[in-house]
Write a structure and sequence with these properties.
Its cofactor is FMN. It is a peripheral membrane protein. By secondary structure, the chain is an alpha/beta fold. It has twelve helices and 13 strands. The radius of gyration is 19 Å and the shape is globular.
Length: 343
């Protein structure tokens, strides 16, 4: 029903307006999901223990969808095993001027140049205080007006304020929509940033896993640097990958819009990055696979390439909430035929 009726209607309207309209529907009419969507699968065989946390299933929602932690309960009720909120910054910011979100229907993709629009970390913390049992990741970044040489302070502020309210952290230095942010992926500033956060983390009685979210546009040498940095700073793992600046082989009208590209055009590259990190590191740390997951098979490819968990974003928008069910059903089917295949 979603792909045949609901999506064609939604896709006639501005994507950012539809996003907030969907939020309103889920918030005010939660029973609609129970009527029109398959019942979420709950099965012990889907559980995963990764970086010390127990996930009820390996399919999560990527950051960017619920930036301000307004819908994590309703979204988890759709069947996600975990929800990543953010990217959050210390101070509220409007992000980039609209229009800043574009569908590329012929490519099953999206280009966004949102620019870390969010209401600030303090507002999100107040909502997270009401969380009962949803496993939450906190994706953190810097404000646009903060120069890179002072960026570490923004990450520290978000880390401290979110610490008691999230289960793991994600350091976002890979968004292409904040000027010069990706320069923080260079080895020296990234090692300093992650090392500082990890030192702060280890002063806590119960440290939280810290993950690094990386761009798909990194070279092999840069990916080798990432492996070294993860080992040196002893953070928990990597999320691979963020959106891409590549526009290779696109056919849609909006293909030349600036911003980060997500969706099917990213499927192959994100899996390549996962496999590279897994193989070259000797599976030294967990990887969360995200980028171009539109089918259950896409998710399995990432898991078999070395990911421990996967996240949806654009595939969730194009394929609908049933995709969560399809992935978990496929995992259970594979588990029944080969119990050790994806464990």
């Amino acid at each position: 029903m979603y792909k045949s009726i609901i999506r064609p209607i939604f896709f006639k309207f501005d994507p950012e307006e539809v996003h907030y309209f969907t939020f309103s529907l889920l918030k005010n009419f939660p029973f609609l999901a129970k009527i029109f969507l398959p019942k979420p699968i709950e099965d012990k065989r889907l559980e995963r223990e990764v970086f010390g946390l127990k996930f009820k299933n390996p399919v999560g929602l990527a950051a960017g969808f619920d930036k301000d932690a307004k819908m994590f309960t309703e979204l988890a009720d759709l069947g996600f095993g975990f929800i990543e909120i953010g990217t959050l910054t210390p101070k509220p910011q409007d992000g980039n001027p609209k229009k800043r979100l574009f569908r590329l229907k012929e490519d099953s993709a999206i280009i966004n140049r949102m620019g870390f629009n969010n209401g600030g970390v303090d507002a999100a913390v107040e909502r997270l205080k009401k969380n009962k049992n949803v496993l939450i990741g906190g994706n953190i970044g810097k404000n646009k007006i903060t120069p890179n040489e002072e960026a570490v302070n923004d990450y520290i502020i978000c880390f401290k304020k979110l610490f008691d309210h999230v289960d793991y952290f994600v350091v976002n230095v890979s968004s292409p929509n904040t000027p010069n942010l990706r320069e923080l992926q260079d080895k020296e500033p990234l090692t300093k940033l992650l090392g500082t956060l990890q030192q702060l983390n280890l002063t806590k009685k119960n440290p939280k896993p810290i993950l690094l979210k990386i761009a798909p546009d990194l070279s092999d040498d840069q990916l080798l640097d990432i492996i070294d940095i993860v080992k040196d700073t002893k953070i928990a793992g990597v999320i691979a990958t963020n959106t891409t600046l590549s526009r290779e082989n696109l056919v849609s009208e909006n293909k030349n819009e600036t911003g980060g590209l997500s969706g099917k055009p990213l499927t192959k590259r994100s899996t390549e990055v996962i496999r590279f990190l897994s193989e070259k590191s000797g599976k030294a740390f967990p990887i969360v696979g995200v980028g171009g997951i539109h089918t259950a098979e896409d998710a399995l490819e990432k898991l078999e390439a070395g990911a421990s968990l996967v996240q949806l974003y654009t595939g969730f928008i194009y394929e609908g909430p049933a995709l969560i069910h399809e992935i978990n059903a496929k995992l259970l089917k594979n588990y029944s035929s080969a119990p050790n295949r994806l464990q």
